Amino acid sequence: EVQLVESGGALVQPGGSLRLSCAVSGFTFSSHWMHWVRQPPGKGLVWVSRIDTETNTHYVDSVKGRFTISRDNAKNTLYLHMSSLRAEDTAVYYCVRGSRDWVGVDVWGQGTTVTVSS
Amino acid sequence: EIVMTQTPLSSPVILGQPASISCRSSQSLVDRDGNTSLSWLHQRPGQPPRLLIYKIFNQFSGVPDRFSGSGAGTDFTLKISRVEAEDVGVYYCMQSTQFPHTFGQGTKLEIK
Lengths: 118, 112
Prior knowledge:
The complex is a heterodimer of chains A (118) and B (112). Chain A has strands at 3-7, 11-12, 18-25, 34-39, 46-51, 57-59, 67-72, 77-82, 91-98, 105-108, 112-116. Chain A has 118 residues and is mainly beta. Chain A is built from no helices and eleven strands. The relative contact order of chain B is 0.33. Helices cover 0% and strands 48% of the residues of chain B. The N and C termini of chain B lie far apart (36 Å). Chain B is built from no helices and eleven strands. With 112 residues, chain B is mostly beta strands. The A-B interface holds A 35, 44-47, 50, 58-61, 94, 99, 101-111 and B 1, 35, 37, 39, 41, 43, 48-51, 54-55, 60, 90, 92, 94, 96-97, 99-106.
């Protein structure tokens, strides 16, 4: 069974840093692109970042220079390093698998909550 | 950035009746290889989204046959042939043709 389990969400002060992790199982992690998508409270979905199998990365403009996506294929784990956090970064962060059949996404994790507040 | 616009934003439906959601992109989603990376997702309250349809009309594994997708270029539609109680929630279209990937605002499906 394909599983993606996020962790690391917390309450953090504005300007602070946090690292999210996503431990995966049930598929060959190294063969898939991986994404982070977030959802602010009561709002819609926002794509955040993607890393491919060669570790090339893309980001939405609002997080460029502050967030870094990375992966450890030996540990089957995806990361999102977040710094200079702002109130508007408050959201549930989902780890999402990239499909092998097309350039989009398929399986989603349950999410981890990040709250940026003083 | 490609803007995705869904209509309606709210859709009250009767159990057993059909439902339809439209999604329009601000530019064509056809890439240089002729592929169209448009998908539909469903999110139940308190749950993560799950993929229903990808590349316009392909059903993801385990998705009931009552869900179908159609469209081309900039205009796309998700149809539910007969709405069941478990179909309530919010539906999103998503484009993966261009970075940043973007979502529609979401359409809330409610039982009338």
